[in-house]
Amino acid sequence: TVSKIDTAFQTALANARAMPDAIMRIAAEQQALAAANQALMGAFQLSVDQRFGTGTSGADIAAEVIRGFEGFRATPYYDVNAYRVGFGSDTITLSDGTIQQVVQGMTVSVADANRDLLRRITTELMPIAVAAAGESRFSSFTPQQQAALTSIAYNYGEIPDRIAAAVRSGTTQEIAAAIQGLAGDNGGVNRNRRLQEAALFQS
């Protein structure tokens, strides 16, 4: 379904870009993107509801969501500003609780990566989301909503200012729409991730 939606979007985008008038071209491109985002939201909503709808722990749902987005790597790779490993972390947490910085040449297990991810969710990432929403507001969110915000904090290192106001006082639909509004960041490289997080927030 997602591949069909993307194919239809690429076709609509190509047709829009073939228009001779610049204003009409921009309007058609925006219309194609909006239609694709709406179709993807529908597809993702069903998938997210089925996978995470019955979860009762925001931290556990967030861990599963982040693992799905990041994938696992046993050996370090350089990304943005640091070497990362496991599920995209620049640290690793050993079974004795020791936290190590990722360096070239190390190899990590899935267990170590999971341990590090859960540690970071509870001690770093959820606190970022709590700070953005306010403690009582964050506590009022469902586990799915807490997980969506935690996933955003993982990917951005913060809750972006563009959604912070909605997170603090908006309705479920307003917050989901604000999350969806992040889909074009960095050239849309994480578009599907943002749409899935928006779907998760309103699941």
Mean pLDDT over the residues: 87
Judged by helices, strands and strand pairing, the structural class is mainly alpha
Helix content: 55-70%
Largest sheet: 2 strands, antiparallel
Question: How much of the polypeptide forms β-strand, as a percent range?
Answer: 5-15%
Enumerate the strands of the largest sheet in spatial order, edge to edge or round the barrel. 1-2
Number of helices: 10
- C-alpha end-to-end distance: 19 Å
Order of helices and strands: HHHEEEEHHHHHHH
Number of strands: 4
List the uncertain runs: none
Shape: globular
Q: What radius of gyration results from the CA coordinates?
A: 19 Å
Folded structure, characterized:
By secondary structure, this protein is mainly α. 67% of the residues lie in helices and 9% in strands. It is built from ten helices and four strands. It has helices spanning 2-17, 22-52, 58-70, 110-133, 135-140, 143-156, 161-169, 172-180, 185-188, 191-201, and strands spanning 73-79, 82-86, 91-93, 99-101. A two-stranded antiparallel sheet has the order 1-2. The chain has a two-stranded antiparallel ribbon with strand order 3-4. Strand 1 and strand 2 (82-86) form a beta hairpin. Helix 2 packs across helix 10 and helix 8 (172-180) runs antiparallel to helix 10. The longest helix has 31 residues, at 22-52. It is globular, with a radius of gyration of 19 Å. The two termini are 19 Å apart. The mean pLDDT is 87.
